[in-house]
Amino acid sequence: MRGTGLFRRLGGALAVxxxxxxxxxxxxxxxxxVPDRVETEAGPALRYNVFLPDGYDPARGPYPLLVxxxxxxxxxxxxxxxxxxxxxxxxxxxAGRLPRLIAVxxxxxxxxxxxxxxxxxxxxxxSDLLADVARKYPVMTTREGRAIAGFSxxxxxxxxxxxxxxxxxxxxxxxxxxxxxxxxxxxxxxRRSPAFAGPDGSFDLAAWTRAAWPxxxxxxxxxPLRVPLYLAAGDDDRLxxxxxxxxxxKALFRHQPDALELRVVDAGHTTRVWxxxxxxxxxxxxxxxxxxxxxxxxx
Length: 299
Hints:
Blueprint: H1 2-20, E1 32-38, E2 46-52, E3 65-69, H2 83-95, E4 102-106, H3 121-136, E5 146-151, H4 153-164, E6 171-175, H5 205-211, H6 213-222, E7 229-234, H7 241-253, E8 260-265, H8 272-275, H9 278-298
Parallel strand pairs: 3-4, 3-5, 5-6, 6-7, 7-8
Antiparallel strand pairs: 1-2, 2-4
Helix pairs in contact: 1-9, 2-9, 4-6
């Protein structure tokens, strides 16, 4: 009987590795973008784009899922033209560092991906979006098969989601994260977002403080799961992002030293931050997903 259990566990481990690493890479990748939408109970329909890899075949699933959150002012099309990101995925697949994966990019302009009187963006992502994608596409539905990433306000939203829902995602990448522990600077788009507006329509610092990561950290640390985080910021970012990223890294380091990376690169608050770190960030995400999957099988 013990031998039978061992074979079952080895078979499960093999399934995880096949899903996360061992898809064969094509000679010339062709990504397909599929527009979609989901009706929500929390508000209007959420539009999203789905990125399907070259050679996509539902029968070869389930595929790992990468959720990409755009920055302030963006929408579901914001990541569609980010050729460097898709190049990094293709290169990673060819080198055996990454699996073929499905990526989903929802659009929720100016929400900062939180639940507020303006919009129920967080609930829409963690409930409606994940469920709708799982119904329609052959994606993995456990945390070792899902990663989340974002740029600027999208990184702010991704961080909040993994701190509040660590059971949903096995790893996260935060590019140029606008994750101010205290008050956002005057230049920050947060000060003009209806997500943080008070009754008079002006920026409400109390609303920001209630939603900021220091308010979420105690409950995250009180539970056993840790979400590996990759942070990247530009040293020329006038929005003080590098300082804020380092501040978060310091707060988390003693709690998850082997599941945390911080990179400060030569860039401002621009897409160069993820362009120069895309290969490393994606490798970080999916290496940790594979480790989490194997760890579960060994429990």
